Amino acid sequence: MRISDQQVLDLTQYQMNSAYDQMARAQTVLASGKRINSPADDPIGATTALELQGNLAELNQFSSTASDALNWMQTTDSAYNDVGDVLQQVRTLAVQAANGTLSQDERQAMAASVGQLLQQAVQSANATYDGRYVLAGYQTGTSPFVVANGVVTYHGDSGAIQQEVSPGQMMQINMPGNAALPAVFSSMTQLQRDLQAGNTAAIGGADLQAIDDAHAGLLVAQATVGTGTNRLQAIQQALQSRQNTTTGQVSQIVDADMAQAAIDFSSRQATYQAALSAASRVIQPSLLEFLK
Amino acid sequence: MANLDLGINSLLRGLEAQQAGMDVVSHNIANASTPGYSRQSVDLQASDPLTYATVVSAGAGQMGTGVTVAAIQRSHDDLIQQQMAYQNQSQAQQQMLSDTLGQVIQVYNEPTNQGFSNTLSAFFTAWQQLSGNPADGPTRAVVAERGTALADSFNTAAASLQTIQQNLDTHVRQYVSQINGITQRIAGLNQQITSVVASGQQANDLADQRDTLLNQLSQLADIQYTITPEGAANVALVGAGSLVQGNSSFNLATIPDATQPQFVNVVFDGQKAPLSLQGGQLGGALTARDVTMADQLSALNSLAKDVVDAVNHFQSTGYGSNGATGISFFTGSTAATMAVDPRISADLANIAASAAPNSPGDGSQALLIAQLQENPAPGSTLTLQAQYQDIIGQLGVDAQQAQSNVQTGELVLQNLSAQQSSVSSVSLNEEASNLMQYQRAYEAAAHAITIMNQTIGDMIQQLGG
Q1: Whole-prediction pTM value?
Q2: Mutation test of the interface with chain B: which of A165, A287, A289, A292, choosing the one with the most B Cβ atoms within 10 A?
């Protein structure tokens, strides 16, 4: 084949350009630390990475939702616990009053104590998390239990707050107070009235029974909340582990193997330098130089 | 004395022929780096002989009279030139497609943490937060702000895609005026070349100029051309009609499209029927504008509409913390027009997080919107994220394909150009050795003339002496 000067120049230029292009690509990978810098680098990898990054953002959000829900449920749990503790104290008073050896004055004093305990129970039942009343159903902005003349009324509703705590997993995070607590408060109110009236037979009979029944109801509510809390803790751990896995997967798809990238870059750089050096030698004096 | 005359005349012809050879070598060396230049060579030929008759012999034969320049020719392979024209138009078209897709990729800026996908995730995350704390003012503000950010992203992406499309349209106008300039010059060269050819000469340098123009034209549009025996190049725009016929050229023009008046169609000047063009930068720009970018915009618009419809579907049936219902979250139905409903921005309580009125703790409606992250919107089979991933995935596949076509095409062009250089380009070594050859022959002829001169001189002296 006849070789013209132009041909050699063209070829040299083409080779230098493509060596430079490859070096620049290797340099982008090395500098960004990413194997995929454009969807065109690896369309399937890029879409998978997008999907995984979307999942990861979602998991992060679920994780924060779950931790918020857990705080909410723990607040609920301790509200029911506190009410339960108060109810136990009331029951102790009721047992004392039932044996009939107390004077009416002593019973009046005891009635006052029950009234205070009732206030305390209502205060516990009006527990808030982040400014929201946890036992009020959907009416989270309204104080759910109000005492007037020793009688407690409920101002919330039975709204079940559902939250998605993990992809596709819905969970009721609240336990509206109207299920278990009215019985608790009314048993206290009734005891207070019977103490004031000196109705010892009722105290030892129906009142004590009402307190025990209310306590049983309270235990059911507490158990439900406790089970939910445990489930939520398990979900949180699962979320954490999925977050770790997904982060690893994204990194595996998108991130460059730095050792490999460094080797690639060095080898492309060497190729480019070789092309440059070849170019400097190929553009040499022609025969014309020697015709002196 | 006839003999001496003959000798001097032969030598003189020799001097002239070697001089012509050296002139052509000089021309070649001078044009060694001229684009499109084809090296020229001198065809030397023995000049017409004389029938020789002397006193010694009547039938001695013919006596040579020296040398003559039969032709100065250029080294050129028209087949390679035609192949290059074809490859040029296909390469220019692929390059246009690849460049356009590269610009679209920059619009979406994926996969990064600043891309569109992230804005979409952030929007749904805000709804998820709201579902957990539906009565909270700051959380509502975040939802509205992320909604605005999402609408902005759509607006910006749409505007960027439209800018790319509009730039392609500007290119179309520029290419048309470049094509007209080139075809006019080709017609002018046709006229010059045919008159040179008619006088029996070779129009080497003019033909090179015309080949360069044909080469440029083939990058602009898909052309086919034939060279007539008279030396004219007749050029046709494939699938459209004649651009150059002999000494006449036919101009292209642009007229506004009937349905999209912001874009132009390419027509023959004075006509109305839009030409359907594929190859070259012109065909590439038209295809990129009318197919590639139109598809990209329609995919983005369809995604925007689905986002608007899906969010509004749940938002308008839910209840705000003020009890309001039936208020949409987004307005607009395309990527360019999408915006957060002004009623939402004016009163954040209008954001419908609850499924029933007067339920400040109920975030179930917000949750339905948050779940659009993982569930398909009503009436759809794909999630919004999946639709977006499809756009990016398809874009990546197309761009990768176009890049690889461009690289392959470059290699083919490089090979063709090497073949053409091999035939046509100047080799300085070759010219140097030709120069030596002509120079030595010139020197020899000059020396012979000196000897001849001396011989005649001696003879005259002796006759006279």
Answers
A1: 0.82
A2: A287
